[in-house]
Amino acid sequence: MTNWSPRAATMRRARRRTYRVPKLAWILMIPFGIFAMPSLILLSIAMLPTFGALVSDRRTEKYAATCVGGFNLSATLPYLFMLWGEGGGMTPLKPILGNVWMYLVVYLVSAIGWGVFWAFPQIMTKISNWHSMGEYQDLQKRKQELLDEWGLDLAQEVEKINNEAKK
């Protein structure tokens, strides 16, 4: 008799749902890889921070890879366009890969992407807290206006009714 557990059942279902690349796609990737080899080399070197973000982010949504990847790709595209503008072969790739400024720009922009990924949630939390405090103060003012208008006796009666309802 086999041991059944929800975790084992989930693992079996996950194994069944794995995506398999058809053989035709692999066959078509070979000529594409040969003709696009310089672009693939440039992208694989320049997009290393994105691959690092993809591996290091434990969330299933991969927010770090999305954020860093967007910045990284935007910094890589000008060099990719330069490569394509000069014919896209291995000969124009060598000066691009030999350019130290390319590495500085691409990796620095990726670092900015990491900074945005780290700082943006904290900034949004601060803004949300600030907004909530403003709403809280407005509600306190409105409460005081209602107390002044209706009197403290009514507020005590409502408090008493609420306490009895909780019991």
Question: Describe it for me?
Answer:
The chain is elongated. 14% of the residues are buried. Helix content is 84%, strand content 0%. The chain has one domain (21-166). It has helices spanning 6-16, 23-35, 37-46, 48-56, 63-85, 90-98, 100-150, 152-166. The mean pLDDT is 87. The chain is mainly α and 167 residues long.
List the helices and strands and how they pair.
Blueprint: H1 6-16, H2 23-35, H3 37-46, H4 48-56, H5 63-85, H6 90-98, H7 100-150, H8 152-166
Helix pairs in contact: 3-5, 4-5, 5-7
Provide the descriptors you would attach to this structure in a database record.
167 residues, mainly alpha, 8 helices
The major beta sheet can be summarized as: none
Shape: elongated
Strand content: under 5%
Distance between the ends:
52 Å
Mean pLDDT figure = 87
The figure for the number of domains is: 1
Our Rg estimate from Cα atoms comes to 29 Å
Low-confidence stretches: none
Task: Please report the total strand number as a whole number.
Answer: 0
Helices, by number, come to: 8
Q: What helical percentage do the residues reach? A: over 70%
List SSEs in N-to-C order.
HHHHHHHH
Estimated structural class: mainly alpha
